[in-house]
């Protein structure tokens, strides 16, 4: 089992590799497209609008809105999208390791 410090270094390394290669932007764009296609974005926006309607716009901060929608939004991400993104990350890392 790796320690917290090693895990943080590994995450930083992966993030650096993703950013330097341009893969981060590609994955981000792909994720946004897939979330839009599946209606996830519309569902999250509807939840946010419902909260604003119920509490009144003057009674809700952006932070409160984020806190109230975060859990359900994360739980609502379709499993196939998560699987797809993880698979793309794994493939990216395999390619980076084999290139060295």
UniProtKB/TrEMBL annotation:
GO terms for biological process: chromatin organization; mRNA export from nucleus; protein transport; transcription elongation by RNA polymerase II. Pfam families: EnY2. It is found in: Nucleus, Nucleoplasm; Cytoplasm, P-body. GO terms for cellular component: DUBm complex; nuclear pore; nucleoplasm; P-body; SAGA complex; transcription export complex 2. The keyword Transport applies. Keywords: Activator, Chromatin regulator, Cytoplasm, mRNA transport, Nucleus, Protein transport, Transcription, Transcription regulation, Translocation, Transport. Component of the nuclear pore complex (NPC)-associated TREX-2 complex (transcription and export complex 2), composed of at least SUS1, SAC3, THP1, SEM1, and CDC31. TREX-2 contains 2 SUS1 chains. The TREX-2 complex interacts with the nucleoporin NUP1. Component of the 1.8 MDa SAGA transcription coactivator-HAT complex. SAGA is built of 5 distinct domains with specialized functions. Within the SAGA complex, SUS1, SGF11, SGF73 and UBP8 form an additional subcomplex of SAGA called the DUB module (deubiquitination module). Interacts directly with THP1, SAC3, SGF11, and with the RNA polymerase II. HAMAP family: ENY2_Sus1. This is Transcription and mRNA export factor SUS1. It comes from Syncephalis pseudoplumigaleata. The gene is SUS1.
